[in-house]
Amino acid sequence: MKKVLLIIAILATYTCGMMAQTKTANEYKQQIKERKEMLKYSDKVLKSKIAKSAKAAVKQLKKEGWKPFPGEAPLENQFNEKMRLATLMDGILPKYLMGEGNAVSNIRQVATKSAEVSARSGIAAQFKVEIDEVIDQSLNGNQRNQDEDAMVRIVSEETQHISQTLQYVMPIIKMYRERNDGKVEVNVTMYTETNQAKLALFEKMEAQNAALREKLEKAIENK
Q: What residues make up the domain containing 166?
C-alpha cells in the first residue's frame, strides 16, 4: 500500500504541477529523484497508476474550465502520453525533455505563441539540471575541479540558446480556458528528444574545448 501511495504522490508532481511557471532548478532536481523512484516499479504498475493519476488531474482541470484545443486529443489522453514519455530513459538521461508554458491574452493564438516560448525555456532548464546532475554523479562525492566547473559554465551558457534553436520540438499538451475578464489562458507542454539537445551541446563544446566535450560524453555514457 505504501508503494502505491508513493507512486501516486510522485505522478501528481508531473500531472498537477503544470499550472506553475517554469520550474526552478530545485524542482527539476526533485523531479529527477522522483523519476528514479518510479523506475523501481514494474511497467504494469506504472501504467495503471499513470492512468489513474492523469484521470484525477484532468477531472480537476475540467472543473477549472480547461479544455483541449479543437482537433487535439482529450486531455486525459494527452496527460497519459506525457507521463508515459516522462518515464522513458536513454541510459542515465531521460529520453525526452519537457517544458511547460502558460500565457494569457485577448487572442488565443497570441497566448499560445507566448506559452510555447516559455515552454522552450522550460526544456532548457530541465536539460541544464539533467546535465549538471550527470556531472555531479561522475564525481562520486568529490569536489568539482576546474574541468567540471568549466563544463557546468558551458552548459549554463549554451542550453538556453540550444533550446530556442532545436528543430524538433512538439506539443504534447495543449489546453485553454476562457477567463472571467474575457481573456484566454493557454497552457502547453512541449517536448523534444534529449539526444537532439545533447548532440547540439556536444557541437558547442567541441568548438570551445574538445577535451571537455569528450569528458562529458564519457560521463553521460557512464564510462
A: 2-220
